Amino acid sequence: MAKVAMLGAGFIGDFYTFSMHGQRNRDKVCVIYSRDEARGKAFAAKHGIPRWTVSMKEAVNDPEVEVVMIGLPNNLHLEAVRLAAEAGKAVFCTKPLGRNAMEAKEMLDLVEKAGVVHGYMEDLVYTPKTIKALKSVEGGALGEVIWARSRETHPGPHSDWFWTKDVSGGGVLLDMGCHCIEISRNYIGKDIKPVEVMCWADTLVKPIEAEDNALGWVKYENGAIGQFEVSWSFRGGMDLRDEVMGTEGTIWVNNFLRTGFEMFTAGGKKGYVAEKAETEKGWLFPVGDEVVELGYTDMLTDMFNAFDNKTLPKETFYDGYIVNEIMDACYRSAKSGKWEAVELKEWRGREKTEKINALKDYDAEHLLVKEERMPDGTVKLILKNKNSGKISQRITG
Amino acid sequence: MAKVAMLGAGFIGDFYTFSMHGQRNRDKVCVIYSRDEARGKAFAAKHGIPRWTVSMKEAVNDPEVEVVMIGLPNNLHLEAVRLAAEAGKAVFCTKPLGRNAMEAKEMLDLVEKAGVVHGYMEDLVYTPKTIKALKSVEGGALGEVIWARSRETHPGPHSDWFWTKDVSGGGVLLDMGCHCIEISRNYIGKDIKPVEVMCWADTLVKPIEAEDNALGWVKYENGAIGQFEVSWSFRGGMDLRDEVMGTEGTIWVNNFLRTGFEMFTAGGKKGYVAEKAETEKGWLFPVGDEVVELGYTDMLTDMFNAFDNKTLPKETFYDGYIVNEIMDACYRSAKSGKWEAVELKEWRGREKTEKINALKDYDAEHLLVKEERMPDGTVKLILKNKNSGKISQRITG
Amino acid sequence: MAKVAMLGAGFIGDFYTFSMHGQRNRDKVCVIYSRDEARGKAFAAKHGIPRWTVSMKEAVNDPEVEVVMIGLPNNLHLEAVRLAAEAGKAVFCTKPLGRNAMEAKEMLDLVEKAGVVHGYMEDLVYTPKTIKALKSVEGGALGEVIWARSRETHPGPHSDWFWTKDVSGGGVLLDMGCHCIEISRNYIGKDIKPVEVMCWADTLVKPIEAEDNALGWVKYENGAIGQFEVSWSFRGGMDLRDEVMGTEGTIWVNNFLRTGFEMFTAGGKKGYVAEKAETEKGWLFPVGDEVVELGYTDMLTDMFNAFDNKTLPKETFYDGYIVNEIMDACYRSAKSGKWEAVELKEWRGREKTEKINALKDYDAEHLLVKEERMPDGTVKLILKNKNSGKISQRITG
Amino acid sequence: MAKVAMLGAGFIGDFYTFSMHGQRNRDKVCVIYSRDEARGKAFAAKHGIPRWTVSMKEAVNDPEVEVVMIGLPNNLHLEAVRLAAEAGKAVFCTKPLGRNAMEAKEMLDLVEKAGVVHGYMEDLVYTPKTIKALKSVEGGALGEVIWARSRETHPGPHSDWFWTKDVSGGGVLLDMGCHCIEISRNYIGKDIKPVEVMCWADTLVKPIEAEDNALGWVKYENGAIGQFEVSWSFRGGMDLRDEVMGTEGTIWVNNFLRTGFEMFTAGGKKGYVAEKAETEKGWLFPVGDEVVELGYTDMLTDMFNAFDNKTLPKETFYDGYIVNEIMDACYRSAKSGKWEAVELKEWRGREKTEKINALKDYDAEHLLVKEERMPDGTVKLILKNKNSGKISQRITG
């Protein structure tokens, strides 16, 4: 049973605490920090938390506290990490790690120097579907992954600070691109180096300084592409989908909007349907258990198991740093209009990965381009002569 | 933290234990009973359980044990319940409660006389989707429920004893009809009396004595119909779907085969896809976290919270008994070819429920039959004159 | 190119004409009959039809007319068929053929005595998906069909006459049960005799005399069950789904509500979404081309090809008669509460069909009950000893 | 009734002819041209075509022929168009129009100088779903379209010539990108100028010279993005999906792989499931009527109606030329790694389109950033002060 200081009484702090205190779980929040006294008090009452404070330092240094969880606006992550590191306590930080790679690198250095257990709370690589999908990919079900698309779009975040660039550090690319980038990185392989990025970002719909829509491609050393699509102007709820193409297979994951639960109501249902649903009547698509489906449950299990075992969870500050570097490159690319290199100050993965190679011999003289069963039952082969390079077709029984 | 004796080291005992020991849960199995020494030992090793035994009595009376969980073949439920009641320990029993209503009634009497906490482990009313759907129904999102279809079909159970009638007590109707009946009962209202049933059951595909396919309708006192469809000869995996029609809305729940997770693999994936998947290549439809999606997680939370609080969970032996009575009536109907009364020795719900009434006045003289917006933008009304009974149509702006 | 008299200027006449005059089709309506002069005129203008009349006889005997299409209320089918038969013209009649089997039988006798081409316009066995599905079933893709569920539910018909029992002849069972019954009959085999039926019908929601909800099972001589579900009180649009279980496979067809076309609109879309959609904003599920998806296109092709070739289409008045007999038995069963025999005055199919038999030998001594690959890669067999009847399990590599 | 010379007896010629001769259609192929005598003869026999020839010129100049349809490899389009223009006959050409914009421009000039009816056979903007979706977009259901994704991926084309770059002119970008680009252009607005493109293209899986995978963004003058994704190495069938985001709504179209038709077969179905399905057993996803669902039916209707009325169809050689220019820019971008301008020699749309503007006033002083109903029933507003630019949040009843 771990004792936790929760930093932040907003939407995400609520989700984390709800998840931690749910089911028959054994970990507990023992102090809540909020800048706002009333909110902190209300949060403590709602979740049965014994203590609340308006001092971040006090929360972190609470003698009972073993683990610090950061659910604060982006501009406060670094300060919170520094306090935790100084206190020598385990620290789990929400996404994105920093507002930029410089901040993220500093946080990474702080926790590593302090030798504390640290986790990067990227919940979406922990959704039960993603966990199982990644296991299938690792088991070879898809062959080599050549492309992974991750999409997160909804009608915009809940709190004003997200929309204010100097607090948040950026727009939708920073807020949700971080999810998508880390998801694709997991599918393609976390030890394969991201080498360059191409990004488009624009402010098309909302009256804000930062971008409200962004698209991007992250190219990995083996030639695979991680594609992200993020928007704060999507209509219809929250769309969280991943698609993976491999040389031998395909994976499609829908984490939120179409999960086998459909409801039509004429009268208007009272109460909470789902995060970022847009309507209260007509056809609705609730999710079963949000904290499970969004990955909070499995993420916290991994984080707290790491704390118990004094190891590191699957997602660490190092991963958060890599994601920040990729996003920094994306912002550069959105400005320059060309591919920009990912400038990693620190790389702990494979040093050199060969390009994907899925060529198949048909016989001594030919490579197989394609094999297809035709409507009449015959099999049609497309072959390439290894010497001449000539492509031909052949029908077999 | 509850200490549990698990009775039964088969498929279902495995699922229960896996669920209880998963995530950051605090309850633990401390002794496993299996008739087979080798299986018990292996089970204990796999799940990190300190003790195993071939004596059911020894397991139940283990001094550390507070809760007895029954995951045994149907013919052993009564004996296990008797032991637990005699020991004065909480007891949670897998479905169906008895092989018939007589057995179930005896179990109900035993636990109530002993005054122990008891739970009927009907996991499928605890799937996260079902929990949320039931809440919507209770909140009025569907108006009055008039029909609930529950379907469970797959290619047949895992162990030989299910297929052996004197051990199991029946075929697919008993094995899976119990799920569907209790799901519909929850949607329609657990305090509304089930009055009669119509059932078809046949042995169409399998070389067994008991039925391998069954269909049924349970009529409730308010006129609503609970429909079940069960099969041990379905091809394509495990189909677990519920559909609910209300006067004001509709709910469709797919718990297993189409939940937003799709995979194509050319090569043949090694390893476990999902309970009762039939193929290992081509298009596969895994579920995210089976123990969550099948309701085990939320069911155990409710059961163990009840144990902690010395209350009763949502599903008790009384519910199990009601389901057994309904199934007994189904078997009578399948034989007689007509509607058969449900003969409840014990009814604790509403004594008399009026028939569903959803009539709507249009004006002083007319009832509204239907209102529809037409392609040309007008609204077409179908009205019934309250005096003459004549039905007419009217176009309005 | 066929010249057609369209009888009826209502919703269904509109659909038929729209379908016939659509794309690059070559058949044409040359006269429209409507009881109401204004409607007939407007219909003619809308569809470019040269002549209109308020005399059914005049329309049928129009010298240019070769084919009579009946899109009239149920109580006028017999009269229209008599006129067409007397005129010696081909006649295609909408569903249901009669208000009861007696009417239907008379119509069948009339066209057969007159020797005219006749078609029963059961569009839903002609949806492109159904056509392909039936072909797969005939090709053996499902083994033996043991169960076919057909469901049609929506918020109720468009015109007042449907709701008036002496005009329509019945409620939702007659109006839409006829679709479902013929769909199941096609899947199970049109030459296999329907022997008895069980039906529930009730008036739960609407202020009408006839039933607004009905459920039924049609038992065929080989033991297969055709299940229908019909409702005039469904909320959420029009639900047209079929599910087929065979000993070797499964088919699921969704003809209308989930066909791969999803739209969310915040503003409220002007114009026609789809037949019987209930909302104009939020999530909507339009169909592509309604006249194709509902089977009108392929049905008319079959009907007019039959006319050209002086043969009969796939669905004839004989089929309409069989469906009416099944529905008559359903009404008897709904009243008696027991299985009722289908009393066919005329049966042209197979005289005696054996019960479905899907038993599989495992070896000389055993039948195979089930074979399953387990999570650990082994294969688990459930076997039945042919002599002792004992069921056992066996693990193989 | 139009009389057609079909040029090309391959896969696409077969589809065109099958579609034209299907249902009760009135247009007919009267001569088939194939380079290969045996194929031409067989094609004529199969489709009931009176004449066949190995001379393209003879086919085009056949005196009965009114319309020339081109279903030839890309390198023969220009020659065929020239012959048709010289003969003064209507000409419909398959996609892509040219191997590059230069060829396409020459074809456009040829038909316009000759004054013949011409059509660009881009079937996928004619799928019934796309037609209805475009109508909704035009009606304002989505507000302003800001992004349209079109995806076409499958395991590769049927014939050797596609894989041979000097015949085809390019790889998957040319072969299928042309579909996606024209689909997005229709959603965003055909009169809005495409200004620049970003493209990634690589040869990851197949042993060929041309690209087997490509991704791209086409930026339109109003800031909207048309995104395409094409692959010849997708596993699992043919994936044809479009997704559209507007300021007020969303459209998702699935034309092929998930259209409400699902089949599981254990035994292995004989015969044709669907174009580019990869498996014959397990879960299969057939389409209903391929020629309808892929747009051939509605496309030919538009083309032949244009011929009858001496107008132009919705898709003309001009559209084909625009698409080729966009693709030429894509190839430049794939090489240069930066956005490349679309260099239109001819632009007939709007001269200048303003940037998308969806700003909404909340009151005199504030713009509305977001409005959301919270779980507790309150409404949360995110507002931007017009003067200070400060963003704040506000809770209202």
List the helices and strands and how they pair.
The structure is a homotetramer of 397-residue chains.
Chain A: E1 3-7, H1 11-20, E2 28-33, H2 37-47, E3 51-53, H3 56-61, E4 67-70, H4 77-87, E5 90-94, H5 101-114, E6 118-121, H6 128-138, E7 145-153, H7 165-168, H8 172-188, E8 194-202, E9 213-220, E10 225-231, E11 239-246, E12 249-254, E13 261-265, E14 282-284, H9 290-293, H10 296-309, H11 317-336, E15 340-341, E16 360-361, E17 366-373, E18 379-385, E19 391-396
Parallel strand pairs in A: 1-2, 1-4, 2-3, 4-5, 5-6, 7-10
Antiparallel strand pairs in A: 7-11, 8-9, 8-15, 9-10, 11-12, 13-14, 16-17, 17-18, 18-19
Q: Would you kindly provide a written description of the structure presented here, covering whatever features stand out?
A:
- With 397 residues, chain A is an alpha/beta fold.
- Chain A is 31% helix and 27% strand.
- Chain A has eleven helices and 19 strands.
- Chain A has helices at 11-20, 37-47, 56-61, 77-87, 101-114, 128-138, 165-168, 172-188, 290-293, 296-309, 317-336; strands at residues 3-7, 28-33, 51-53, 67-70, 90-94, 118-121, 145-153, 194-202, 213-220, 225-231, 239-246, 249-254, 261-265, 282-284, 340-341, 360-361, 366-373, 379-385, 391-396.
- In chain A, the strands form four sheets. Chain A has a seven-stranded mixed sheet.
- In chain A, a hairpin with a 5-residue loop joins strand 17 (366-373) and strand 18.
- Chain A is globular, with a radius of gyration of 23 Å.
- Chain A starts with a strand and ends with a strand.
- The model of chain A has no long low-confidence stretch (mean pLDDT 95).
- Chains in contact: A-B, A-C, A-D, B-C, B-D, C-D.
- The interface between B and C is large, with 68 and 68 residues.
- Strand 12 of chain C pairs antiparallel with strand 13 (261-265) of chain D.
